[in-house]
């Protein structure tokens, strides 16, 4: 049997969850034995080149590009995992959800204390830029998500165990210390 | 302004545990609580400004911005909507030229929504400067606003159209109706108040009082149903400098109004019950914690207390019993459903945010000001009087084996005779519906939003702790009602609004569930959504207090008993639908930055 293929991406996240993937330490060598990486910041492959078995998503969706990437993951991956608080619930970026988008943009580009250089009060509105969504959405409100791994970031051991369980088909061990909600 | 605030703080002896009273009087004096006022309080009470502010921000009736010379609070309960709230709301907006949540530019009138004000049998109702206006119509709204504009006082707005019973007394003069439709041992007029205190108590020891209460098997009438005798006994045994008796008159569960009626028609019975409890547990101080929505009763209830003091039914050596001292004061909430939860109520009584405490310790050990305290519902105290009068054995002949005595129900919704009914426990729902003149009934909400929604195939169930347990709220929904969008969603929004926010389960899962319900109602739901609702709701069990633990019930019980209503909206052919609309989601941001949405280029 060929090796299972994995893809990962970071949407509206801080890359902390990816750091946690790397945190499996020397087991990364074992992982490379077990799986093959496709589109992912880990190997810097930018586009899907073949069907993928497991897609791992860090971060929720704050703009139209996130939505597009997430949908392409859904299309190309058999299984999708929401990794971390941001993907599962929106996380820190979702703190803006209670504030009207106009106020957020004004604070970021015009009113905020650190925007001194933007003297002309320019709003980024180039057609090439992703469009901001009205709020930050958790991934499962955009596409179907199969599994959720909680934490900010989830412990490396949790990620490792989950991947091994998915690949081997064995039931997952969930010792108390491994599951964290923040 | 500063001087007035100083006087208020001094009136309460600069006691920070009386912050609620101080804030209420300040809010009433100025229509809001200014930063100047907060400054004065924080200096005089020796607390930080944020400590004052955090209490202010917790309660709906406090505001740091002016609420208008006439602050109008229109009830937002499901039943108000059923009886024409929308038209009344629009009339208010049309007549004043402002929207709800705003104050007119001249500062004269403010319009606000508020959760159930305990008038479900006379909706739509509103509170204007502490006076209740019932059965509003768009025509009446026009009259009221014109009258306000021409300078009428609130009392003049009522037009002398007072309600029934004691609502007509000069000290009450309320438009509210008591609507008592069936009397039992509590509402009956054959008891002369004071009889037990002056004739029975002198012959009984405190222990004997507790023994009778225990023997009666009465359980608390506030909803949770804890055995009252045990509670009093635990409290009597707890050591402390002082023991307190607290009457829970927060009555915040939408659809309940029987405590209002008991306090209007039989306040003496409640106060006498509190005094008896004081005698039993060895406490000399009682507090009636009354919801702010019932502020219109303040003067009346204080007169009743005075009268009872004059008759030596309160005060020192009551009824000639040496050392039996007991007095009662009234303290108000300021709009927060969770303050009906007994430990949140204690926090509120101590002048703080009404956030429930961790338990144990229970209030009987460490309650008000950390002293042993019993907290009971209005009806529980009233019932205790009749138990001590006639004995616990007598009491057990009413009701059923596990639910003794009578229960006062607040019945509202689609029926001919909404109002208050005192029935023996063991009554079944069909009998109840016949009694209130309800036909073509689609569903009954038993026990308010935190209770259960049942359909006709369960109308043969009986009211009692072992079957349909209820604090007394019964709302009837006719066939014409849209249960999911008009009732279930309204209840969920109520819990979202009223969660104190301490537990992430209660703060978040209510939102998540309501959002899913909205998605289903938009026709975007799939079967999996129903499964999710059911299984996700379980995390609410981990919440600290009953509010969170029951906050999923509107959805859970309607999903269980009215699954077909959900299924009508469900897309059968899909196993997933995100319900997400990209075009709508980017609209506002694109408009603000000045660009045309473009979905085709990435
Ligand atoms: C969110 C919440 C609201 C409550 N509201 C009330 C109320 O308004 N009145 C009441 O008597 N009990 C209310 N309770 C129940 C009280 O915590 C407490 O059980 C009751 O006052 C005890 O009195 P009882 O034993 O006489 O019923 C509420 C409980 C919760 C969790
Ligand atoms: S969950 Fe935490 S670690 Fe992961 S992307 Fe979000 S903020 Fe970063
Ligand atoms: S369950 Fe809800 S209302 Fe109760 S303490 Fe927790 S957050 Fe507050």
What report would you give on this structure?
Chain A has helices spanning 16-22, 27-34, 64-76, 84-89, 101-111, 156-168; strands at residues 5-10, 36-37, 52-58, 61-63, 77-83, 132-137, 147-149. Chain A has 182 residues and is an alpha/beta fold. Chain A has a single domain, classed as NADH:ubiquinone oxidoreductase-like, 20kDa subunit (Rossmann fold). A 5-stranded parallel sheet of chain A has the order 2-1-3-5-7, sandwiched between helices. In chain A, strands 4-6 form a two-stranded antiparallel sheet. Chain A is elongated and about 55 Å long. The model of chain A has no long low-confidence stretch (mean pLDDT 92). Chain B has a 6-stranded mixed sheet with strand order 5-11-10-14-12-13. Chain B has a 4-stranded mixed sheet with strand order 2-1-3-4, covered by helices on one side. In chain B, strands 8-7-6-9 form a 4-stranded parallel sheet, sandwiched between helices. In chain B, helix 1 runs antiparallel to helix 2, helix 3 (35-45) crosses helix 4 (49-58) and helix 6 packs parallel to helix 7 (138-149). Chain B has 4 domains: 2-58, no CATH class; 70-161, Glutaredoxin; 182-395, NADH-ubiquinone oxidoreductase 51kDa subunit (Rossmann fold), CATH 3.40.50.11540; 406-481, Ubiquitin-like (UB roll) (Roll), CATH 3.10.20.600. Chain B starts with a helix and ends in a 9-residue tail after the last helix. Chain B has 602 residues and is α/β, with parallel strands linked by helices. The mean pLDDT of chain B is 96. Chain B is built from 25 helices and 14 strands. Helices cover 41% and strands 12% of the residues of chain B. The A-B interface holds A 64-65, 67-68, 89, 100-102, 105, 123-128, 130-135, 137, 141-144 and B 508, 575-576, 578-580, 582, 584-590, 592-599, 601-602. The complex binds flavin mononucleotide and iron/sulfur cluster (2 copies). One iron/sulfur cluster binds next to helix 20 and helix 22 of chain B.
